[in-house]
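Slack export, channel: ligand-projects

TW: morning all. Re-posting the request from yesterday since it got buried. We need the structure predicted with the small molecule present, not the apo form. The ligand is flavin mononucleotide; the SMILES is in the block with the sequence. No rush, but it would help planning for next week.
GE: picking it up
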Amino acid sequence: MTGVAAPVATAAGAFEAVRRRRSVAKVTAAAPDDTELLHLLSAAGTVADHAALQPWRVIALRGDARARLGEALADAAGLVGDDRAALAAKPLRAPLLLAVAARRHEHPKVHGWEQDAVAAGVAHTLSLLLDEAGWGVMWRTGPHVRTEPVAAVHGLAPDEHLLGWLYVGGVPEGVSRVRHRAIDAAAVFTSLA
Ligand SMILES: Cc1cc2nc3c(=O)[nH]c(=O)nc-3n(C[C@H](O)[C@H](O)[C@H](O)COP(=O)(O)O)c2cc1C
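GE: finished. pasting the full token output, ligand included:
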């Protein structure tokens, strides 16, 4: 994490904000505070939600909490030595990790997969809003995301399962905002009449 760049808010429409979003793998030590996070989450949390179950929760990890997560990942992997140190350091790549947990409620009509779709929608929307606000974001998971040591660090209830973490930080100077991946919409679109 080098070269702290101040976030620059943009006032683009939704289409432009979505089109220009891209993940930022290497971020600086700058990060949004909880007040800003709550502001953005109050918008991200309005995604379509069958029966308004609000089947999700966000947990912010800063400071030593990231190191505890690293140790939990290494415990889950059963690693020792240099391999352990390398895995344990991964959460330190950003100053702020936002864990998004899907929380499945028992409901007679709304199946679990529908609730997971809501939680994923919140994560995508929060990621987009952070990007639009000028922060660098990358959604990451890994093979140990749903292990017991990792759940314990977050204090998850038995009905909560992580969808991963939004790694958040400042955008280093010179990072390109040019979209690198074109979408061939016609290849994945079918129109029935
Ligand atoms: C649920 C989920 C988990 C992901 N996990 C990882 C990950 O662990 N490591 C990684 O390099 N990219 C991961 N990605 C992909 C990146 O977040 C990102 O989308 C990808 O690098 C493409 O960049 P773009 O978002 O700018 O198109 C994940 C994406 C999603 C939606």
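GE: first-pass observations. The domain at 23-173 is CATH 3.40.109.10 (NADH Oxidase). The chain has one domain: 23-173.
TW: perfect, thank you
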